[in-house]
Amino acid sequence: MITSERMTPLPRKTWVQRFLTYMKTNRLLLLMLLPGLISLVLFKLAPLGGMVIAFQDFSAFRGVLGSPFVGLAHFQRIFEDPYIWTLVKNTVLLAFYSLLFTFPVPILFALLLNEVRVRWIKGSVQSLSFLPYFISSAVMVSILYTLLSPSTGLVNDILTRFGLDTIYFMAEPGWFRTNYVLLQVWQTFGYSAIVYIAAMAAIDPSVYESASLDGASRFQQMLHITLPSLKPTIAIMLIISVGNIFTVDLDRILLMYNQSVYETADVIQTYVYRLAFASSGFPEYSYGTAVNLLKSVVAYVLVVGTNKLSTKYSDTRLF
User: Fold this and answer.
1) pLDDT tens track for 61-73
2) Dihedral angle at the C-alpha atoms of 240, 241, 244, 247, nearest 10 degrees?
3) pTM of structure
């Protein structure tokens, strides 16, 4: 006769025990992750504490703990400063033009490159296209100065051959935004296209084969298969780009900067730089931080709004 005995249930592990077990099991992976976490904390999260000086009359001699608290006085000063609106206008226009031209160019380039069937040509063009991304801004601006030089530049040489007047591209305010955007597109379009090329590689080839059997041309396949498949990627990249709407390349602007183009080249970042590091008097760290903090808050609101619109119209969201 077989008798059955009641099994005693094993004790349930506490969250501490589960955590220790997880740490022990994945210790090597966590060890590989540690340098990145340390870098994130030291250079991204820890500096956020310095934002408190936007609410202080900060003095480098007294430090954060010894500087007096002034509340929203610096933010009130921002709205009372008439020059701020010129800076906002210049920043928004420069960022808007950059987004308008820099965002669609990599998509178009990736779509066209995807249609190239000769492998070595496709690889060579892709490699050459993202090479400028790894060249420093100083070198790229130097190349631009050389091309646009009024005396020896290639562009002005072509203009004079057609009987046109020489243009001082780098010294005229009206040309600053065009020069900046052209340089931005030239330096980043190849690198940004990698994201879209990778998304295209994930498309099922059988879809193209079915469309081809149904008589769809290459252009129709690109328009009705490739482009719709890129919609989630495009939506995410747009959200990220909108988040940078108030962010311009400070290094590039400073290298292209001169007194004759202040009218269109002076943006929020250059203003904050002058306040904090290039001030003729005592550096205004608190006011500069307040300006930058307000810019970041507005950019965050734009990102949240774009994310909601993306969720509504493309079923894709970043967070």
Assistant:
1) 888 888 888 988 9
2) 150
3) 0.77
Name the token pair of 207: 């879809």
Q: In CATH, what number is assigned to the domain containing residue 218?
A: 1.10.3720.10
Tell me 171's DSSP state: G
Domain hosting 270: range is 55-280+287-314
Based on the structure, what is the number of domains in the chain? 1
Tell me the CB-side half-sphere exposure of residue 150, using CA atoms within 13 A: 8
Look at residues 195, 218, 219 and name the one whose alpha carbon lies nearest to residue 106. Answer: 195
What residue type is 173 in one-letter code? Answer: P
**Diameter of the chain by CA atoms?**
113
No. of helices (H) and no. of strands (E), the chain: 18, 0
Give the SS3 label for residue 117. coil
User: Which one is predicted more confidently, 8 or 266?
Assistant: 266
Tokens of 267: 């943006």
Tokens of 206: 């059988």
